[in-house]
From TrEMBL:
Keywords: Hydrolase, Protease, Serine protease, Signal. One of its GO terms (biological process) is proteolysis. It comes from the Bacteria. This is S9 family peptidase. SUPFAM superfamilies: alpha/beta-Hydrolases, Peptidase/esterase 'gauge' domain. It comes from Wenzhouxiangella limi. Residues 24-422 form the Peptidase S9A N-terminal domain.
Length: 697
C-alpha cells in the first residue's frame, strides 16, 4: 500500500522515485534552495496542503480576524528613543511593508501623535521595483543626523545597507553603501564606520558571517578600508561598535569563537587591548566609566568567587590595566535570572525573572558606591524594557500577561515614577478564562514549570483541545504574553494554551540553559514529554486532543518529540525547523550553533546527536500524527532543506503530512503582515482539524 501511494505522489509532485539503499540521503537535491526541481516540489506540496487547510470551515473567519488584529490602527506604536525623539517602525493594512517615522516625546504622549514619515518602504519598493523588507536603522551619535538603513530582499538575514540623511530625507549618493550580504556597517564617527565584509569566502567564517573588522573612511573605496582585526575561519563571527558613555567613546571589537564564548577587545590608538573577563561572560554596558559584566559561570578573581548568573561592575580602566576591582551588583537565586541590562544617563536598569515573572531593579552609583532599588512596576506579568534615553533617565517599559493586553509605561528611573501612556485594546473576550502555573517532573527528577491558559467553561475531562508551546534553547526565556491571534483563533474557540518553561531556555538563568547543551539535549525533549504527560495525568487533555508547536530550535524540539513519543500527540506544528542534525552545521548559519548541539563530524558527538535527530530517526513503521511543517524559501538562517527533506522522507515512508513553504519571508516565515495572517490561519485551521474535530464556528 505504501509503495503504490509513493508512486502516485512521486508522479503528482514532480520529484523522483528514490530508494534509500546505498544513498544515505536521497533528498539532498532539496537543499538546492532555488532550483526549479526543488521549487516545483515545494509548490506542489503547497498546493495540496493549502487546498486541504483552506477548505476547513474555520480557515476563512480566522484569516479575516487575523488580518484585523495584525493590521489594526489601535496597536501600540512602540517607541525607540534616539536623541530625545521617538522613532517607530509601523505596518498596517495601508502600509504592508511599513513606514519609519518620528515624533517628539511630548507629542508621543497624545492618543494620536503627529507622526512624520521618514521612509515609506512600500513606496520605495514600488519606485525601485524591489521586494524590500525593512531591516532596521542604525543612527550616528550624538546628532542622529545620518543613519545606516538595512533593507532585505524578501525578508532574508542578508541585507542591502545604505546611508540615509535625515535632514534631506534621502539616501546619500556617495555615502556608505553595501550590496546584499551578511556584511555589517557600524558608525564610528561622522566620517568613518566599522565595516565587516561578507562577500568572499576568505572574509567569512564557516558560519557565513564576517570574520574581519575594517575601518572605512568616507570618500574612499570600500576595498581600501583598513583591516584592524581578523578572527579565525572556524569562529562564529566578529564585529565592532563604538559604545558611548556620555561623551566618552569606547571602540569595542567582539570576537565569538563559538556561539556562547566571546573575546572583547578595546581598540585604542591603533592597538587592541583584551578585556580580561571569562570567555562566556557578557559585557552588558558601560556607565560613568564602570564596566558591567554578566557571568554565565562561576568566576574566581583573587580571593573572591562570583557565582554563575551574577551581574558585576568595575572601573573600566582598572580592567584594562589588569587590576580589576569588580564588585557584585546582583546575584540571582535559583528561581531568578537576569533577563536584560539597560542604561540611562545615570542609572542601570536590570530586568529580572523571578519564577518566570518580571521585575525591574535600578542601580545608581554615588560617592559611597552602588545602591539598589526595586522599581515600582505592575506585578505577576512579563516586564520588558522597550527603550532608554542616553540624555536623561527616561525609559519605556511594557507589561503584559496571557490575559492582559500590553500596556506601555513612560518612566523615570532616577525618580522611580511611571505612568501608563498606551494600552493595547482587548482582542478577545477573557471572561471566564484563567491562568495557572503547574510543575511536571522530568525523567531526571527536575521540576519543570508550565503555564496553562484555560478557556471559559473549562472542565478537566480530558477532552480539551490543547496547544502546547515551548522553545528550550539558546538561553531564550519564554514568558507570559498576550496574543490576539491565539486568543481569538484558539482560546475563544474552546482551546487550552500551554507554555512550557523547559530546560535549554533562560527562565532560570545560565544553569537552566546549560543543563540541556550538547550531550544533555535529550533533557529538553524529556521536559516537554513530561509536561505533556502531566497535562494528560491532570485530565486537562488527552493524546487525541493534544498538539505541540515550535519554531526554529522549537521546530527541532517538536520534530524530535514527535519521533520519540508519537503516542502523546495528535498534532505537530514544526515551523522553520532544524531537523537534519547530521548536516545542520553545513547549511547556512548552522555551524554557529555547534556550541548548542555539538559537532556531527565528531563521532563521539554524533553518537548522541543521532539518537534524537528527527530526519535520521523518522520511521516507516511508526504511527505519527499528521504533522504540519512550514518554512520559507528566503530563510537564510535555518535552511529550508530541513523541512523539505523531512517531509519528503515522511511521504516516501507513507506518512500523511502537510507542508507549506512561503516563497519569501526570511527566518520569521513571513515578509509582511498579510503573509503572517495567512500562515497563522493555516496553522489554526490545522489545529482545529486535528484537535477539535467537528469545529466549525
Amino acid at each position: 500500500m505504501k509503495i503504490s501511494i509513493l508512486l502516485i505522489l512521486c508522479a503528482a509532485l514532480s520529484w523522483p522515485s528514490v530508494t534509500m539503499g546505498a544513498d544515505k540521503d536521497a533528498f539532498l537535491w532539496l537543499e538546492e534552495v532555488e532550483s526549479e526541481q526543488a521549487l516545483d516540489w515545494a509548490r506542489a506540496q503547497n498546493e495540496r496542503s493549502v487546498a486541504y487547510l483552506e477548505a476547513h470551515p474555520l480557515f476563512e473567519p480566522i484569516h479575516e480576524r487575523n488580518l484585523e488584529i495584525l493590521t489594526a490602527d489601535d496597536r501600540i506604536a512602540y517607541p525607540s528613543l534616539r536623541g530625545g525623539r521617538i522613532y517607530n517602525f509601523w505596518r498596517d493594512a495601508e502600509h504592508v511593508r511599513g513606514i519609519w517615522r518620528v515624533t517628539s516625546r511630548e507629542d508621543y504622549r497624545n492618543d494620536q501623535p503627529d507622526w512624520d514619515t521618514i521612509i515609506d518602504v512600500d513606496a520605495l519598493a514600488d519606485a525601485e521595483d524591489e521586494n524590500w523588507v525593512w531591516g532596521g536603522a542604525s543612527c550616528r551619535y550624538p546628532d542622529y543626523d545620518r543613519c545606516i538603513i538595512g533593507l532585505s530582499i524578501g525578508g532574508a538575514d542578508a541585507a542591502v545597507r545604505r546611508e540615509f540623511d535625515l535632514a534631506s530625507r534621502s539616501f546619500v549618493d556617495d555615502g556608505f553603501v553595501l550590496p546584499e550580504s551578511k556584511s555589517y556597517l557600524s558608525w564610528r564617527d561622522r566620517d568613518s564606520v566599522f565595516f565587516g565584509p561578507a562577500f568572499e569566502d576568505e572574509q567569512m567564517t564557516s558560519s557565513g558571517y564576517p570574520r574581519q573588522v575594517h575601518i572605512w573612511e568616507r570618500g574612499t573605496p570600500r576595498q581600501d578600508a583598513r583591516l584592524v582585526f581578523e578572527a579565525e575561519r572556524d569562529d562564529v563571527l566578529v564585529n565592532a561598535s563604538r559604545y558611548w558613555d556620555g561623551d566618552t567613546p569606547w571602540d569595542i571589537i567582539v570576537r565569538l569563537p563559538s556561539f556562547f564564548t566571546r573575546e572583547y577587545h578595546v581598540l585604542r590608538d591603533g592597538e587592541t587591548i583584551r578585556v580580561d573577563v571569562p570567555d562566556d561572560a557578557n559585557l552588558a554596558g558601560i556607565l560613568d566609566g564602570q564596566l558591567l559584566v554578566e557571568l554565565k559561570s562561576d568566576w574566581t578573581l583573587g580571593e573572591a568567587t562570583f557565582a554563575q548568573g551574577a551581574l558585576l561592575a568595575a572601573d573600566m580602566e582598572s580592567v584594562l590595566a589588569g587590576e580589576p576591582d569588580f564588585e557584585l551588583l546582583f546575584q540571582p537565586n535559583e528561581r531568578q535570572a537576569v533577563n536584560g541590562v539597560s542604561t540611562t544617563d545615570n542609572t542601570v536598569i536590570v530586568s529580572i525573572l523571578d519564577n518566570v515573572t518580571g521585575q525591574l531593579l535600578r542601580f545608581t552609583r554615588g560617592p559611597d558606591g552602588w545602591t539598589r532599588q526595586t522599581l515600582d512596576v505592575p506585578d505577576l506579568g512579563t516586564i520588558s524594557v522597550v527603550s532608554t534615553d542616553d540624555r536623561s533617565d527616561a525609559f519605556y517599559f511594557n507589561y503584559t500577561g496571557f490575559l492582559t493586553p500590553s500596556r506601555l509605561y513612560e518612566a523615570d528611573a532616577a525618580a522611580d515614577s511611571r505612568r501608563q501612556i498606551r494600552s493595547e485594546p482587548a482582542r478577545f473576550d477573557t471572561e471566564g478564562m484563567a491562568v495557572e502555573q503547574f510543575f511536571a517532573t522530568s525523567a531526571d527528577g527536575e521540576r519543570i514549570p508550565y503555564f496553562v491558559v484555560k478557556p471559559a467553561g473549562f472542565e478537566a475531562d480530558g477532552a480539551n483541545p490543547t496547544l502546547l508551546g515551548a522553545y528550550g534553547g539558546f538561553e531564550v526565556a519564554r514568558t507570559p504574553f498576550y496574543s490576539g491571534t491565539i486568543g481569538s483563533a484558539w482560546l475563544e474557540r474552546g482551546g487550552v494554551y500551554v507554555l512550557a518553561n523547559i530546560r535549554g531556555g533562560g527562565e532560570f538563568g545560565p544553569r537552566w540553559h546549560q543543563a540541556a547543551l550538547k550531550e544533555n539535549r535529550q533533557r529538553a525533549f524529556d521536559d516537554l514529554i513530561a509536561v505533556a504527560e502531566d497535562l494528560i495525568e491532570r485530565d486537562i487533555t488527552s493524546p487525541q486532543h493534544l498538539g505541540i508547536q515550535g519554531g526554529s530550535n522549537g521546530g527541532l524540539l517538536t520534530g524530535a518529540v514527535m519521533v520519540q513519543r508519537p503516542d502523546l500527540f495528535n498534532a505537530v506544528v514544526s515551523q522553520v525547523p532544524l531537523l537534519d542534525m547530521k548536516r545542520y552545521h553545513k547549511l547556512l548559519a548552522g555551524a554557529s550553533w555547534m556550541a548548542e548541539y555539538g559537532d556531527p563530524d565528531d563521532p563521539e558527538q554524533w553518537a548522541y546527536i543521532r539518537r534524537y535527530s528527527p530526519y535520521q530517526n523518522v520511521s516507516a513503521e511508526a504511527d505519527y500524527p499528521k504533522a504540519f511543517f512550514t518554512t520559507s524559501t528566503r530563510d537564510d538562517r535555518v535552511h529550508p532543506g530541513h523541512a523539505r527533506k523531512m517531509v519528503a522522507r515522511m511521504v516516501e515512508q507513507g506518512h500523511d503530512v502537510l507542508y507549506y513553504e512561503n516563497i519569501e519571508g526570511g527566518h520569521g516565515g513571513a515578509a509582511n503582515l498579510k503573509q503572517s495572517a495567512y500562515i497563522s490561519a493555516l496553522i489554526y485551521a490545522y489545529l482545529h482539524d486535528r484537535l477539535n474535530p467537528g469545529s466549525s464556528d
